[in-house]
Write a structure and sequence with these properties.
Layout lengths: L3 H9 L5 H12 L4 H5 L4 H14 L18 H28 L1
Length: about 100
């Protein structure tokens, strides 16, 4: 999975958009405790994440990962990849929300 510090570096270098950064931080939280992740994030990124997670809480069941482009290989494989990534986003949002409610 992704390391928070590396994600922030990729964002700061322009490799990731702010939205991509927030999605990845949610995916990471599916497997790691938000409190641990928060300690590795700059205050401005954590604040942006708090706002985004709060706004997304109302639509957890609609959290999806999409890809616009072409694929090589079987469609079923990519459907599974995007289903798994969407589940990670949903799981991460579910873990971040209580963290932000408690701090």
């Amino acid at each position: 999975m992704f390391e928070p510090a590396k994600l922030v570096e990729r964002f700061e270098s322009g490799e990731l958009t702010s939205h991509e950064l927030l999605i990845r931080l949610c995916q990471v939280a599916a497997d790691r405790a938000p409190a641990d992740l928060a300690s590795e994030l700059p205050a401005d990124v954590l604040n942006d994440l708090r706002k985004w997670v709060t706004a997304q809480q109302e639509s957890l069941d609609r959290s999806r990962v999409f890809h616009a482009g072409s694929f090589i290989g079987e469609a079923g494989y990519w459907e599974e990849v995007f289903r798994r990534q969407s589940q990670q986003v949903s799981d991460g949002l579910s873990r971040w929300h209580p963290y932000f409610s408690d701090v």
